[in-house]
From TrEMBL:
Keywords assigned by UniProt, alphabetized: Membrane, Transmembrane, Transmembrane helix
GO CC annotation, single: Golgi apparatus
Keyword rRNA processing among UniProt keywords: no
Database matches in InterPro entries: TBL (IPR029962), TBL_C (IPR026057)
GO molecular function: O-acetyltransferase activity
Trichome birefringence-like C-terminal domain sequence ranges: 46-281
Pfam families reported in the protein's UniProt record: PC-Esterase
Name of the molecule in the record: Protein trichome birefringence-like 26
Transmembrane regions: 12-35
Stored PANTHER family: PROTEIN TRICHOME BIREFRINGENCE-LIKE 25 (PTHR32285:SF324), PROTEIN TRICHOME BIREFRINGENCE-LIKE 9-RELATED (PTHR32285)
Superkingdom of this protein's organism: Eukaryota
Protein backbone atom coordinates (compact mmCIF):
# COMPACT_ATOMS: atom_id res chain seq x y z
CA UNK A 1 0.00 0.00 0.00
CA UNK A 2 1.36 3.42 -0.96
CA UNK A 3 1.02 5.89 1.87
CA UNK A 4 0.69 9.64 1.90
CA UNK A 5 4.09 9.96 3.52
CA UNK A 6 5.75 7.92 0.77
CA UNK A 7 4.20 10.13 -1.90
CA UNK A 8 5.07 13.31 -0.04
CA UNK A 9 1.53 14.65 -0.21
CA UNK A 10 0.42 17.73 1.63
CA UNK A 11 -3.34 17.36 1.17
CA UNK A 12 -5.30 14.24 0.35
CA UNK A 13 -8.97 13.46 -0.18
CA UNK A 14 -10.78 10.15 -0.39
CA UNK A 15 -14.31 9.33 -1.50
CA UNK A 16 -15.16 6.35 0.67
CA UNK A 17 -17.90 4.06 -0.60
CA UNK A 18 -18.66 5.71 -3.88
CA UNK A 19 -22.32 4.90 -3.81
CA UNK A 20 -22.98 3.65 -7.28
CA UNK A 21 -20.76 1.92 -9.79
CA UNK A 22 -21.88 4.52 -12.34
CA UNK A 23 -20.61 7.35 -10.13
CA UNK A 24 -17.26 5.63 -9.71
CA UNK A 25 -16.98 5.11 -13.45
CA UNK A 26 -17.78 8.76 -14.12
CA UNK A 27 -15.04 9.82 -11.73
CA UNK A 28 -12.64 7.49 -13.54
CA UNK A 29 -13.69 8.83 -16.94
CA UNK A 30 -13.29 12.43 -15.76
CA UNK A 31 -9.78 11.87 -14.42
CA UNK A 32 -8.81 9.77 -17.46
CA UNK A 33 -9.95 12.56 -19.78
CA UNK A 34 -8.02 15.07 -17.69
CA UNK A 35 -4.92 12.87 -17.91
CA UNK A 36 -5.30 12.39 -21.66
CA UNK A 37 -5.21 16.17 -22.14
CA UNK A 38 -2.02 16.55 -20.13
CA UNK A 39 -0.48 13.31 -18.87
CA UNK A 40 1.97 15.20 -16.66
CA UNK A 41 -0.87 16.54 -14.52
CA UNK A 42 -2.09 13.17 -13.22
CA UNK A 43 -0.28 10.13 -11.88
CA UNK A 44 -2.37 7.01 -11.35
CA UNK A 45 -1.09 5.42 -8.16
CA UNK A 46 -3.50 2.49 -7.81
CA UNK A 47 -6.36 1.04 -9.84
CA UNK A 48 -7.95 -2.27 -8.97
CA UNK A 49 -8.92 -4.94 -11.46
CA UNK A 50 -12.64 -4.17 -11.13
CA UNK A 51 -12.19 -0.53 -12.21
CA UNK A 52 -14.17 0.50 -9.11
CA UNK A 53 -11.38 1.76 -6.86
CA UNK A 54 -8.57 4.09 -7.88
CA UNK A 55 -6.07 6.53 -6.42
CA UNK A 56 -4.67 9.46 -8.41
CA UNK A 57 -1.95 11.98 -7.58
CA UNK A 58 -1.85 15.49 -9.06
CA UNK A 59 1.81 16.56 -8.71
CA UNK A 60 1.33 20.20 -9.70
CA UNK A 61 -1.11 20.64 -6.79
CA UNK A 62 0.48 18.09 -4.43
CA UNK A 63 -2.99 16.55 -4.10
CA UNK A 64 -4.28 12.98 -3.96
CA UNK A 65 -7.79 11.84 -4.88
CA UNK A 66 -9.12 8.34 -4.23
CA UNK A 67 -12.36 6.52 -4.97
CA UNK A 68 -12.85 3.40 -2.86
CA UNK A 69 -15.65 0.96 -3.62
CA UNK A 70 -17.33 -0.27 -0.42
CA UNK A 71 -21.09 -0.05 -1.06
CA UNK A 72 -22.13 -1.38 2.36
CA UNK A 73 -19.22 0.14 4.32
CA UNK A 74 -19.20 -3.37 5.83
CA UNK A 75 -17.41 -6.52 4.73
CA UNK A 76 -19.54 -8.02 1.96
CA UNK A 77 -19.29 -10.51 -0.86
CA UNK A 78 -18.61 -9.16 -4.35
CA UNK A 79 -21.91 -10.25 -5.87
CA UNK A 80 -24.91 -8.36 -7.21
CA UNK A 81 -27.55 -10.51 -5.49
CA UNK A 82 -27.83 -12.81 -2.47
CA UNK A 83 -25.01 -10.74 -1.02
CA UNK A 84 -23.37 -11.84 2.22
CA UNK A 85 -22.93 -8.88 4.59
CA UNK A 86 -21.06 -9.06 7.90
CA UNK A 87 -22.80 -6.61 10.21
CA UNK A 88 -19.94 -6.62 12.72
CA UNK A 89 -16.97 -6.14 10.34
CA UNK A 90 -16.14 -2.97 8.41
CA UNK A 91 -14.77 -3.18 4.88
CA UNK A 92 -10.98 -2.98 5.14
CA UNK A 93 -10.68 -1.40 1.70
CA UNK A 94 -11.58 1.93 3.30
CA UNK A 95 -10.63 1.48 6.96
CA UNK A 96 -7.06 0.45 6.07
CA UNK A 97 -6.56 3.76 4.23
CA UNK A 98 -8.45 6.01 6.63
CA UNK A 99 -5.33 7.51 8.20
CA UNK A 100 -3.90 8.52 4.81
CA UNK A 101 -6.41 11.26 4.04
CA UNK A 102 -7.31 14.73 5.27
CA UNK A 103 -10.82 15.01 3.81
CA UNK A 104 -13.15 12.04 3.61
CA UNK A 105 -16.58 11.79 1.98
CA UNK A 106 -18.41 8.73 3.24
CA UNK A 107 -21.87 7.39 2.46
CA UNK A 108 -24.12 4.40 2.20
CA UNK A 109 -26.46 3.72 -0.66
CA UNK A 110 -29.13 1.74 -2.42
CA UNK A 111 -27.21 -1.53 -2.27
CA UNK A 112 -28.81 -1.97 1.15
CA UNK A 113 -32.10 -2.58 -0.67
CA UNK A 114 -30.72 -5.64 -2.47
CA UNK A 115 -31.22 -9.27 -1.43
CA UNK A 116 -28.71 -9.65 1.40
CA UNK A 117 -27.87 -12.30 3.99
CA UNK A 118 -26.67 -10.91 7.31
CA UNK A 119 -23.94 -12.44 9.45
CA UNK A 120 -22.74 -11.66 12.96
CA UNK A 121 -19.89 -13.55 14.61
CA UNK A 122 -19.73 -15.72 11.50
CA UNK A 123 -23.34 -16.91 11.84
CA UNK A 124 -26.28 -16.04 9.58
CA UNK A 125 -28.83 -14.14 11.67
CA UNK A 126 -31.30 -13.02 9.01
CA UNK A 127 -31.74 -11.52 5.58
CA UNK A 128 -33.41 -8.82 3.53
CA UNK A 129 -35.90 -10.08 0.93
CA UNK A 130 -34.85 -13.72 0.82
CA UNK A 131 -37.96 -15.92 0.46
CA UNK A 132 -37.29 -19.62 0.87
CA UNK A 133 -34.07 -19.24 2.85
CA UNK A 134 -35.63 -20.03 6.24
CA UNK A 135 -34.03 -16.98 7.85
CA UNK A 136 -35.65 -14.16 9.83
CA UNK A 137 -36.56 -11.19 7.64
CA UNK A 138 -34.51 -8.16 8.71
CA UNK A 139 -35.26 -5.09 6.66
CA UNK A 140 -32.77 -2.91 4.82
CA UNK A 141 -33.07 -0.14 7.42
CA UNK A 142 -31.81 -2.65 10.01
CA UNK A 143 -28.58 -3.30 8.09
CA UNK A 144 -28.15 0.38 7.18
CA UNK A 145 -28.38 1.38 10.84
CA UNK A 146 -25.88 -1.32 11.82
CA UNK A 147 -23.45 -0.17 9.12
CA UNK A 148 -23.65 3.48 10.12
CA UNK A 149 -23.28 2.72 13.81
CA UNK A 150 -20.13 0.67 13.18
CA UNK A 151 -18.68 3.18 10.71
CA UNK A 152 -19.30 6.16 12.99
CA UNK A 153 -17.85 4.26 15.95
CA UNK A 154 -14.68 3.64 13.94
CA UNK A 155 -14.42 7.30 12.89
CA UNK A 156 -15.09 8.64 16.38
CA UNK A 157 -12.57 6.32 18.05
CA UNK A 158 -9.76 6.96 15.56
CA UNK A 159 -6.77 9.05 16.64
CA UNK A 160 -6.67 10.46 13.11
CA UNK A 161 -8.96 13.49 12.83
CA UNK A 162 -9.68 14.42 9.20
CA UNK A 163 -12.73 16.36 8.07
CA UNK A 164 -15.40 13.72 7.42
CA UNK A 165 -18.41 14.59 5.27
CA UNK A 166 -21.28 12.13 5.56
CA UNK A 167 -23.20 12.26 2.30
CA UNK A 168 -26.89 11.53 2.67
CA UNK A 169 -29.15 9.13 0.81
CA UNK A 170 -30.36 10.16 -2.65
CA UNK A 171 -33.96 9.36 -3.65
CA UNK A 172 -34.90 7.69 -6.92
CA UNK A 173 -37.62 8.96 -9.26
CA UNK A 174 -39.22 5.84 -10.74
CA UNK A 175 -42.86 6.36 -11.76
CA UNK A 176 -45.41 3.84 -13.03
CA UNK A 177 -43.32 0.96 -11.68
CA UNK A 178 -39.85 0.11 -10.45
CA UNK A 179 -36.67 -0.55 -12.45
CA UNK A 180 -37.75 -4.16 -13.02
CA UNK A 181 -41.40 -3.43 -13.83
CA UNK A 182 -41.38 -0.68 -16.42
CA UNK A 183 -40.76 2.34 -14.19
CA UNK A 184 -39.73 5.54 -15.99
CA UNK A 185 -38.45 9.04 -15.24
CA UNK A 186 -39.20 11.09 -18.32
CA UNK A 187 -39.48 14.58 -16.88
CA UNK A 188 -37.25 17.20 -18.48
CA UNK A 189 -37.57 19.85 -15.76
CA UNK A 190 -37.02 19.86 -11.98
CA UNK A 191 -39.96 19.51 -9.63
CA UNK A 192 -41.32 22.47 -7.76
CA UNK A 193 -41.81 22.25 -4.01
CA UNK A 194 -44.67 19.89 -3.19
CA UNK A 195 -44.92 18.30 -6.63
CA UNK A 196 -43.29 15.02 -5.63
CA UNK A 197 -43.36 12.90 -2.48
CA UNK A 198 -40.48 10.57 -1.81
CA UNK A 199 -40.92 6.81 -1.74
CA UNK A 200 -41.42 5.12 1.63
CA UNK A 201 -38.04 3.35 1.43
CA UNK A 202 -36.22 6.63 0.80
CA UNK A 203 -38.00 8.31 3.70
CA UNK A 204 -37.16 5.43 6.04
CA UNK A 205 -33.48 5.26 5.10
CA UNK A 206 -33.08 9.01 5.49
CA UNK A 207 -34.63 8.81 8.94
CA UNK A 208 -32.10 6.15 9.92
CA UNK A 209 -29.08 8.11 8.71
CA UNK A 210 -30.15 11.39 10.32
CA UNK A 211 -30.75 9.66 13.66
CA UNK A 212 -27.35 7.94 13.60
CA UNK A 213 -25.53 11.04 12.38
CA UNK A 214 -26.97 13.16 15.18
CA UNK A 215 -25.80 10.60 17.74
CA UNK A 216 -22.31 10.64 16.21
CA UNK A 217 -22.11 14.43 16.28
CA UNK A 218 -22.76 14.48 20.03
CA UNK A 219 -19.71 12.29 20.59
CA UNK A 220 -17.66 14.08 17.94
CA UNK A 221 -18.01 17.46 19.61
CA UNK A 222 -16.34 16.02 22.70
CA UNK A 223 -13.30 14.43 21.04
CA UNK A 224 -12.40 16.79 18.16
CA UNK A 225 -13.90 14.59 15.45
CA UNK A 226 -14.97 16.86 12.61
CA UNK A 227 -17.93 15.07 11.09
CA UNK A 228 -20.31 17.11 8.95
CA UNK A 229 -23.57 16.36 7.13
CA UNK A 230 -23.42 16.69 3.35
CA UNK A 231 -27.19 16.80 2.99
CA UNK A 232 -28.17 16.50 -0.66
CA UNK A 233 -31.44 14.64 -0.09
CA UNK A 234 -33.94 17.43 -0.70
CA UNK A 235 -31.83 18.96 -3.45
CA UNK A 236 -31.81 15.61 -5.26
CA UNK A 237 -35.50 14.99 -4.59
CA UNK A 238 -36.37 17.92 -6.86
CA UNK A 239 -34.28 16.68 -9.81
CA UNK A 240 -36.14 13.89 -11.66
CA UNK A 241 -34.59 15.26 -14.84
CA UNK A 242 -31.09 14.35 -13.66
CA UNK A 243 -31.21 10.60 -14.33
CA UNK A 244 -30.13 8.68 -17.46
CA UNK A 245 -33.64 7.26 -17.93
CA UNK A 246 -33.67 5.05 -21.05
CA UNK A 247 -30.10 6.15 -21.87
CA UNK A 248 -28.51 3.90 -19.27
CA UNK A 249 -27.00 2.13 -22.27
CA UNK A 250 -25.35 3.71 -25.29
CA UNK A 251 -27.81 4.41 -28.14
CA UNK A 252 -30.82 2.46 -26.82
CA UNK A 253 -33.49 1.28 -29.25
CA UNK A 254 -36.38 3.45 -28.06
CA UNK A 255 -38.80 1.65 -30.37
CA UNK A 256 -38.63 -1.26 -27.93
CA UNK A 257 -39.40 -1.41 -24.22
CA UNK A 258 -36.23 -0.17 -22.55
CA UNK A 259 -35.24 -0.44 -18.91
CA UNK A 260 -34.97 3.03 -17.38
CA UNK A 261 -32.37 4.16 -14.86
CA UNK A 262 -34.04 6.59 -12.46
CA UNK A 263 -31.57 6.04 -9.64
CA UNK A 264 -28.09 6.96 -10.90
CA UNK A 265 -27.23 10.50 -11.99
CA UNK A 266 -26.05 12.07 -15.23
CA UNK A 267 -22.89 14.10 -15.48
CA UNK A 268 -23.16 17.01 -16.18
CA UNK A 269 -26.07 17.15 -13.79
CA UNK A 270 -27.03 17.43 -10.12
CA UNK A 271 -23.72 15.87 -9.03
CA UNK A 272 -21.98 19.11 -9.95
CA UNK A 273 -24.10 20.95 -7.39
CA UNK A 274 -23.02 18.39 -4.79
CA UNK A 275 -19.40 19.23 -5.66
CA UNK A 276 -20.07 22.92 -5.10
CA UNK A 277 -21.49 22.14 -1.66
CA UNK A 278 -18.46 20.00 -0.79
CA UNK A 279 -16.11 22.83 -1.73
CA UNK A 280 -18.10 25.36 0.29
CA UNK A 281 -18.08 23.08 3.34
CA UNK A 282 -14.34 22.45 3.08
CA UNK A 283 -13.54 26.15 2.69
CA UNK A 284 -15.74 27.04 5.65
CA UNK A 285 -13.69 24.74 7.86
CA UNK A 286 -10.66 26.98 7.38
CA UNK A 287 -7.06 25.79 7.63
CA UNK A 288 -7.77 22.90 9.98
CA UNK A 289 -4.93 20.67 8.90
CA UNK A 290 -3.39 18.80 11.76
CA UNK A 291 -2.24 15.23 11.49
CA UNK A 292 -2.26 12.46 14.03
Amino acid sequence: MTTKAELGHDVAMVLVSVIFVAFALRLHLFVDAFAAEDAELVEEVVRDETYKSSIWHFPSHNFTLAAIWAPFLLKASDKVDNITVHLDVLESRWTSRYDDYDYIVISGGHWFLKTTIFYENGTAIGCNYCPGMNLPELRSDFSYRKALQLAFRFILSSDHKPIVLFRTWTPDHFKFGRWYSGGVCNRTKPYKEGEFSEHDADRLMRQVEIEEFEKAVVVGTRNRTRIRLLDIYHLSLLRPDGHPGPYRRFHPDLSKRTQNDCLHWCLPGPVEAWNDIVMEMVLNEGDFRYFS
